[in-house]
Amino acid sequence: MDWTVYIIRCDDETLYTGVTTDLERRFNEHGGRPRGARYFLGRKPLKIVFAESGHTRSSACKREAAIKKLSRKQKLSLVHNTEE
User: Fold this and answer.
1) Cβ atoms of 67 and 75 closer than 8 Å
2) pTM to 2 decimals?
3) How far is Cα 72 from Cα 7, in angstroms, rounded to an integer?
4) What per-residue confidence (pLDDT) applies to 14?
5) What is the DSSP letter of 34?
6) Of 11, 30, 38, 70, which is the most buried if we count CB atoms within 10 A?
7) What per-residue confidence (pLDDT) applies to 64?
8) What is the pLDDT of residues 5-43, one digit of tens each?
9) For position 34, what pLDDT does the model report?
């Protein structure tokens, strides 16, 4: 199965990182409970700003963990580099 690592920009300008097999479905789940992440209680997901597909579940989770360890500045640089 093809897994995707993604970053969502929220209405409070924070960044949320996650993994999924269906990016559109997962984004929609985040916008409305009950299947969305608790992180989005009080926040609104605005836009997927980064997506990296082609992972196995294991590699996606490892990549997610690596991204979550980055500073905000490093995450923004990652997002900016993929938008070009």
Assistant:
1) yes
2) 0.92
3) 12
4) 96
5) S
6) 30
7) 98
8) 999 999 999 999 999 999 999 999 998 867 788 899 889
9) 76
71 vs 55: CA distance, rounded Å: 23
Tokens of 67: 């991204």
Angle 3-63-29 from CA coordinates, rounded to 5°: 50
Whole-angstrom distance, CA of residue 84 vs CA of residue 27 = 22
Distance CA 43, CA 53 (A): 25
Residue 19: phi and psi, rounded to 5, are -130, 150
By three-state DSSP, how is residue 67 classified?
A: helix
Arithmetic mean of pLDDT, 46-60: 96
Where along the chain do its domains lie?
3-83
